[in-house]
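In the laboratory, one determines a bound structure by crystallizing the protein with its ligand and collecting diffraction data. In a computational setting the workflow is compressed into a single prediction: the sequence and the ligand go in, and a structural description comes out. We illustrate the idea with zinc ion.
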Amino acid sequence: MPFAMRLLHLFLLSSSLFFFHPPKESVHATQVYICVSNTAKVYHQDRDCRGLEACTHTIKKVSETAAINEYKRRACKVCY
Ligand SMILES: [Zn+2]
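The predicted complex, in structure-token form:
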């Protein structure tokens, strides 16, 4: 194999390794729990938080970013 080809091969090999093993931080965003109710205003860190016990609606697991930006929630004072 010519030297240039070997370099290219090495590059493709290392980039594919990187692709299959991305840094854990980038794929696992912080997950939080929200009560899917119109009156709920907060998101929870803990699934067993007593703030969630009162929830009569569905409890949904979303990313912290989505809870803040899409659901307009703030952090729960009990579990944060
Ligand atoms: Zn809470």
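Helices lie at 3-20, 24-27, 50-53, 64-69. Keep in mind that any predicted model is a hypothesis to be tested, not a measurement.
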